[in-house]
Each structure stands twice: as structure tokens, then as C-alpha cells.
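re: ur question from yesterday

yeah so i grabbed the chain u mentioned. its 285 aa long if i counted rite. heres the sequnce exactly as i have it in my notes:
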Amino acid sequence: MSSFQLDLNGYYTYTSWSSLGDDGYSTFKLTVLANGVIYGSGSDKPGPFVLSGALINDDIRFIKLYTNSSTTWKYIGKRLPGAVGNVYQFAGAWGYVNSDRQDGQWAFTGIATGTTIPKHPTEGQWVGNYFYGSNTADNTHKMSLVTSLDPAVTYNAAGPFSIIGNGADDVGAFKIKGTVTSDGQWEVTKSYDTHSWKYQGRFDGNSTIAGIWRPTDGSTAGGSFTFYKQAKLDTLIAAKTMPTGGSFGITAPATLDSALKDAAASHNQGIASSNILALSKGFSS
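ran it thru and got these C-alpha cells back, copy pasting raw so excuse formatting
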């Protein structure tokens, strides 16, 4: 694994409340090194913070230190199975550094960037609505998705560009797979566990994708859709990914201790080494 950056945002909640809102909204940037060490900084309502820890395969752990108060928390979670390509979605639990008790949950998402990772303006988070037939006045069918270039397909700067992603709407969670051309023709298949739809539209090169959706057999039944790009993780996706319980980090990756020692020694961000090393202890359910 080469080093790369993650620009993440999302929400944390307390065990005493399940609603998602600005009180729990966080943004932060992480550098991910080839040996699994992660470090970075960000901010949320309580203030600015720094982070240090490890990302080994799908296991993520970090200490969060608020620089305005010296308050310290432990975050442990997993990359979600539905996350694809350059899209990284994590969910897990947080609590006191030296405790195995969960005090709350969290869900964050972002796109990987780096000097060796191709980019395309359709990558990112989108939110909007799909409509049945010509009834564009009914805004009850909300849809959110996160898209990425498909790293399994060789990148061609002239296009077409292969895209993949995942999201959620009022029906449930889904995945997408398709292409966007250099002139903005956007065509994907939206797949739930039980059925799929074809979405065809145009990307305006900036912040809007709009078009029609129909059955994958090409028949005319369906409707239209409009998506708008936004930096902030939509609460619909966060609610679908927020864990409802369970254990996190009880079984540790084989190389975790080595990565944590490197983080404590070289990328501790001013966090006590003992706190970073405490990430080897997970949260019970």
C-alpha cells in the first residue's frame, strides 16, 4: 500500500441519543502511511483536535486529542464492506482511552487522494431526489450516494471513466456501477440486493447530475432524478452506516502493535504514547 490522504467528514453520537445533527458533525484530514500509521487533524463543535493511530486493512483506530482542552478519546471501527474504490466509509465506537466501554458511535466517509491516484470531478458525495414519472413536485424520495473512479479499471485521461459507488434512499442501501464520458454523459446501474435500475443523465462538469431512470430492460417506465454535489456527509447515508451495537477491535490485526509503536514514536501529534498504545484494546458490545 502506498501512502495517501483521506479527507473525511461525518458524525458521532452519544449512546443516549440517536439523532444526527450539527452537534456531532466532524471534519478531519488523515495521512495514511504505507505501514498503516495514520495521523491528522480536524475540528468539530467542541473544538480543534489532532489524531494518531493506525489503519490496517479494514481496521481503523485512532486517539482524538482536543488541543483546546487536552480531552482525549479513543475511536475504533471498521471500513464498511460496501465501501468501494477510492471511497472510504468507516463506522465504529468511541469511548475513554483506557476503557472497553462504548460511550457512543460514529460514521465517517471520504475519498482517497494521492499523487498516484487519478481524480475525476464526479467523485464525491451527492444528494438529491428521484421522481416517479413527470411528478417532480414530490420531493419525498431522497437519495444520497458517494462515487469514485473504479481502481480496477485502467484509467484513460480521454475517457470514458469507469465509476463505482454506494448510497442509500427511502428503499434501502444500494451500489452503483457505470461510466461518465468526457462530455458528461453519465450512465450507471443502481443495484439493491433484490433489483436494479438504470440511471442515465448528464454531469454538468461541476455540481449537478440530472436525467432519467428506468428498468434495466430498457422499458420507458420510471422517472427523473437530480443530484447535487456536497462536501458534507448526508445524514441519510450516516444513519444507514451507523452501527447499532457489537464489538469493535477485540481481534487485532497482526501488524497493529508495530504500527501503533511507529505512530507513538514518530507521528504522535503531541498525544501521549501510552494513549496511542492503548488502541490495542478494543470495545466490547
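noticed a couple things. The first helix runs from residue 235 to 241. also Residues 4-116+239-280 form a domain with the Lipocalin fold (CATH 2.40.128.30).
anyway ttyl
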